[in-house]
Protein 1
Amino acid sequence: MLEEQIDPNRPDPARVYDWFLGGKSSYAVDEAAGRGVERMWPGVRIAARANREFLGRAIRWLTAEAGVRQFLDIGTGIPTEPNIHQIAQAIAPETRVAYTDNRLIVLRYAEVLMQGTPEGRTAYLHADFCDPASILASPRLAEVLDLSQPVALCLNALLHYIADDEAAGVDALALVRTYVDALPPGSYLLITHVTPDFDPDTFARVTAGDRAATGQTGQVRTKAEIERFFAGLEMVEPGLVPPQDWRPDGPAPEDTTHRTVSMWAGVARVPGGGAA
C-alpha cells in the first residue's frame, strides 16, 4: 500500500531502520520503536550494519565481476550513502539504477539525494512491491531500465516486512516469482532476510511482541523458506550465507556473529544468456 502522508506520531519501518544505521531521519517515535526492537533483539543494529556492508560488496561484485549495468532496487528505504548508484557508477558510470519504495519520506529524500552520473541514469518510483504492475509496467521505469537486458533485482532487507496473508492475497513467494519472471536470462536476484535460525528464543520474543508498536510488522523466515525465493536460479558462491560471510573483504568485527546478525543473504543468476 502506498503511503499518502508522513505521520510523525507512528513509527515507520524506513525511519526505524535509518535509526538502526545511525541516520538522522527518524522522529522520537521511531527511536522509541527502535529501542523497543533492540530490547528484544540486542543485535539489531549490528545486523543492520552487516546487511549494509554486504549490499556494498554485492553491488561491487555485480558491477565489476558480473558486468551488470542495470539495477532495480525495491524497498529502497531512506538513502544511506553510499547508495547503489554511487557504488555501481563509480565502477561503470553508464550504469542505470531505478529505486522504488512505498514510503512517502523515501520519495522526499530520493528527489533530493539520488542523483546519478551524466553517463548513467538514476530514477525513483513511488510504488508498492505488493503491486508488481505499479513497478514493472511503470513508464518511469521504462525510461531508465531496459527489461530486455539483464537487470539485478535487489530485495535487500525487504521480504521480512512482507507477511504472507491469504485473506489479503499477499504471497511473498508468488510476488518474487512475478518479478523474476519479468527479467531476462543473465539477470540476478539479491536477497537479505531476517531469520530465527540462529537465535530462536530472541525471535520468539520478537514475533510475540507488539510489532505494530515497533513498526516492524512482517514475517521472519527460515533458511529453507528463504531458499524457495531462489528456486530455479543459479546461486552465486558462496550461496545463501549470513551477510558477513558473503565474499568478505576482511575479518568481521568480533560482535558480528551469526547469532547477533541473524540474517541470510544471497545472490543468484537467472539461467541462460551466456556465461556468468
Protein 2
Amino acid sequence: MILFLTIVSGLAWTAVYVDGIRIGFRDRSYAIPAAAVGLNFAWESIYAARSVATGISTQGVFNIAWALADVVIVYTFLRFGRSELPVWVTRPLFIGWALLLGATSFAVQLLFVVEFGWNDAARYAAFLQNLLMSGLFIAMFVARQGSRGQSLLIAVAKWIGTLAPTVAFGWYGNSPLILGVGILCSVFDLAYIGLLWRARSLPTATRGQIAPVSGSGMGAM
C-alpha cells in the first residue's frame, strides 16, 4: 500500500510540474508561487542528490525527475516573474530577491536535516512547505484576480499528490503531525479547486479576472 501511495503521489506531482511548465510558457508567467518554487527546488535538489548517493528508490526516481522539472520552472519564474511585480521593482532588484529566496530555501531545508535527521526532515519539511504552498495558491488567485497562469489540473493533482502521502505517512505511519498538516492541506487545496472551478464556469472572456464585488475593491471569491 505504501508503494502504491508513493507512486500515486509521484505521478500526481509530476503532473503538477509538467502542467506548471506548460502554463508558464503559455501565459508568460509562473504557475507555482514564488516561495514554493524556492522551497521545492531546494527540497528536490537535496533529496535527489541524496538518492543518487545512497541508492535510488521509487521515491528517489521521482525526486530526480522533479528536480529536473524544477530547473525549467525556476527559469519561467526568472524569465517572466518580474512582470508580476510593481513597476518600482527593477530587474536587478528582482534577481537579488530571487537569489535571496533561493539561498534561504536551501538553508531552511538543511536546517531541517540538522534538527531532525534525513528521514524525518524530508517528511516534516515537505508537509509544512506543502501547507504553505496551498495557502499561496489561493493568494496567487486573489492577487491575479482570477485563474491567469494557473490550471485546474495543477490544483487537483497537487491535492491528490499531497493526500496520498498524508495517508501513507500520517495514517499508516501513525504521525499526528503529518496527518494533521496533511488534512489542513486538503482543506486549502479543495478551497483552491473550488475557486478555479468557479472561474472556469465564467464566460471565456472573463475567466482570467473575477468581477469585483459591488461596493468593494476586492475580487469576488
Protein 3
Amino acid sequence: MLDIAIIGAGPGGLATALRLHQQGFRPHIYEAAPELKPLGVGVDIKPYAVKEITELGLYEDFRDISVEARESVFYTGYGQKIFGEECGRHMGYDHDQRFVHRGHMQMMLYKAVLDRLGEDAITLGARCKDIDQDADGVTLTFEGEPGQVRADVVIGVDGIRSVIRSKLLPESDRSHFSGLTLYRGVTVMPPIKTGGSILHIGDPIRQGTLIVYPIQDNVDGQGNQLVNWVVEQDEKPQSEEDWNQEVGIQEIEHVFDDCKLDFLDVGEMIRNARECYLFPLIDHDPLPQWSFGRITLLGDAAHAMYPRGGNSVCQAFVDARVLAERLAAVDDPAEALRQYEAERREKVNWLVMASRGEGPEVVRRIVEERSGGKPFDDIETIFPYEEALSIFSEYHAKAGMKIPGKKEGAGESGKYKSVFSTS
C-alpha cells in the first residue's frame, strides 16, 4: 500500500484524504497551522461539488450546516433586474446547490477524517520547507517536528501560496496584482427574498460589484440568517494575499447607496457587518504542469483562481476524486499522477482564465456598456434573455454542470459569440 503524504488540511486536502480512504489508502496530512479553526466567510458549493460531498457520505452533515440555494439573480447598480435563474434541484440538477461558511465546512471534513482515518492521521504545526525526490520516493523536510518524512507520493494542497508549487515551479511565484480588492463580510439579518437567493449587484465601471448570499439559517435562534457579502473594488492599494485580514467597512459603506431594492437596504447590511476581511485579487497564471514524478498539486496550489463563479473549492473536490481513482487503478504512482493531470489540468485552466475575465459576472458589464450607465425601460431591448442564457449555459457547461434541458452554450452552438476571455 502506498504511503501518501498530503500537505495542507484545508477543505481540498481533507477531501483528498477522505477520497483516498474510500479507495483503501491511509494517507497522512501535514498542516502548518498549530490548530484548525473555522476561519473565513462564505463559499458557494455547486451541484457537481455537492455530488462529491454526497459520495463521501457527508450530505446530511453538510445539509445541517448550510443553506440551500434557490435562485441566482443579477441586478444593475440601480437595482434593476438583468437576469435570473434557479439553482440546484430547482433547475433540474440531480443535486442541490448550497451556501456554507467555509470554516464550518472545513471542520465537518476535519471531523470526518479523524473519525475514519484516526486521530493520528493529521499532524498539526508541521510547516513543510523542502522536498527532495528520488527514484523510490520523496523526502519531506519540516520546520521542527516531525523533521524529515519519507513518502511514496506527495500531494501539495497547501493553497494559493503553496510551498510545494514554489519548489516545483519557482517561476509560478511571479504573480501580478490585478488592482482589484475584495471586502468580504457577514451580517446577521432577516432572510432575503427566498431565504436561498444569491444576488449579484452593481456595475463594474461606476460602483464595482456586490455579491450577497446566506450561509447559515437561524444563526441567533430568532430566525435570522448569517448573510455573506463580497464587495469588489478597483484601484485599491495591494495588500497581503491572505483571506484573514480583518478591516473596517468605512471605505465601502456608501458605495451602493444608489441601489434601490424593495427587499434589501444594501448600505444598512454593510454597516451592520459582524466582521469584514480584505483580500487582493492576484493574477496567477495557469500552470503548465501539475505532476512531477511522485509529487503533484491539487486545489488552489494547482489552479488558484479568482472567487468568481464559485468554482475554486468545488474544483478541488473533483480533483480529489479523480486523483484517488487514478492512484487506485494504476500501479505506477508517477503514471497515476500523470493521468490525473491529463484529465483535470486543461479543464480547470479554462476556469482560471474565465474567472479572471469576470466569469458570469460579465453580464453586468455588458448591460452597463449598452445602457450607457443609465437606468433602462426594458432589459430585452439591450440584453435579450436568450443572449444572457447562452452566456450562462456556456459557463456552466465548462464548469462541469450543463444546464438540464437547455440549449448548448454560446461556445458550442455558435449563435452568440463567447464573451469569456481565456487567452
Protein 4
Amino acid sequence: MDIPMVGIAGVERWNNPPFLPWIPEEFYPQSIYPEAKSVIVIGLPVPLPVLETSPSIYYRELYKTVNTLLDQYTYRLANFLTDRGYPSIFVPRDGYGSIQVLLENPIAFFSHRHAAFLAGLGTFGVNNTILTPEYGPRIRFGSILSTAELPQDPMLETELCTRCMRCVKMCPSNALDKEDYPSGLTDKKACSSYSAELNKRHISPCGICIKVCPIGNDRAVYKRDNAAIYEDKDLFDNYHKAWKHVRSYGGKL
C-alpha cells in the first residue's frame, strides 16, 4: 500500500509510562476498545517543499490529502485484519470536529503521537510533536486498535531533538515552551487561536514548527540542509520568491 512507516506497540506499554506526567488512563487504547491487544501506527510524510509555502492553500490541500489517505489506509487495514479473524478498528487521524471545537476543548480522544512514540517510530521534540529519523516532525500518523497480538517494535532509545529552539523562536503564536516535553507543553489556546485566524483565510494549518525543524533525512533529500533558508532572504531569494508567489493565491490576504 506504499505506506513508508509502520510501528506496533502492545497495549501494555501504556500501563508503564516511559516518562511523567503521562496521559490519563481514559486515553489508553484499551479504554477505548477494551478488546485491543496491539496498536498499529502508520505514518505518511508531509513533503517539505510544499510545507515551506505555509501558511498557504498549497499546504492546506496537502494536509487534507494526507489526512484522507491516513483514514483510508487505517480503515482498510482494520477491515483486512477483521476479515481474517482479528477484529480491529481504525482511529481517525483527528479526533475533533473543527478548530472552533479545539478552542473550547483542545484535546482529542486518542493521541496518535503517544502511540507513534510507543510503537518506536520517533521521539518527542520541544515542539511537542514526534520527530522521526526519516522525516523529522513532517509526518502524520493514523492508528489501528487490534485484537491481534502482534510482535512489538522496539522503542527508539536515542533522543532526536537537538534543542536548537528554532521551533520556539519562529512560532508565530508564541505557543511553545523551551522546556522538553512533557515539562514544556504547547499553549493549546494560543496555537488554536492562530489556526482559527488562518482558517478564516482558508490557509490553515500553520506548520511553522515542523517546517523549521532541522531533524530528518528528508532535508538532505530536498537539499534543505541549511536551516537558515527560512530566515536569510538574501541568500535564498529564489526560494522566498517562490513561497511568496504561492501564498499570494488561493486564500484571503
